[in-house]
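for the writeup, i need someone to sanity check this before i put it in the appendix. the sequnce is what the collaborator sent (i think, or maybe the updated version? ugh). structure was predicted straight from it, no edits. if anything looks off just tell me and ill rerun, i have time this weekend
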Amino acid sequence: MIMAMAASQGGGLIRKDEIDRQLTALCEIKLKGGKGVGTGFVGVLLNLPDRPLVLITCNHVLPTIEIAQDSSFTFGHISEKSEGITVNGNNLLVTKEQNVSAIWRTDPKDLPNPKKDDDQYGGLDYTMIEVNRDQMEELKIHPFDLISVTVAENNQLIILQHPASKDDPLKQEPITESFYPCKKTIGFLMLYDCKTFNGSSGSPVVKVVDRKLQVVGVHRGILEGTCNFGTQFSAILSHGGFDVTEGLLAILCLFFVKLF
């Protein structure tokens, strides 16, 4: 389904086995005590020397490291026939206690945007946590390549999500996808018409680039009606200090300082 749509929109053909591998990076997130559900995904930060693996979702899903550690993460729930494998946060996540350089970045959704006084959307609303590489290899996770990819009006977007069940809001459905054009971008936000439900928060918003699915945003929620919104991934990388362009600029500056 994704492959046919992507081809019809001029994004290039994608091998089905490549799509299937990429879907392994998605996970259902369930908070301890049935306090909520969400979607997350695993990616690799290509511009860092050790290429760490990180899990990304919304801040309103996992606002603190303590909540993340107490949550469960289910990978491989791709169809009704495959309910996936569930891993506890304590075993999945790498904390500062385990590694002082472990990655933990977050930005709440209710922080005001200083560049726009009337911004009703608040902060970036994301959480990025380093995950255990051995655990990911054991689960045969194929992470997304996390780089800064631009998104523009009318770009065709795919939202990969684990929506909550209509019958049970604390039970999540297998991976589903919505395919719609980007309506517009506003600052660090992106707006799109699509069908999402509770449990979809934190889903990767992707587009086809050179026959690959590249993350361009993180889904946040419904604005009104069918109009949904998410945070552009380039803004998340920049906020976390992982922007590829900024990193290359810093290296070039260091080179010229040493040269002269």
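DSSP finds seven helices and 14 strands in the chain. The longest helix spans residues 244-259.
thx in advance!!
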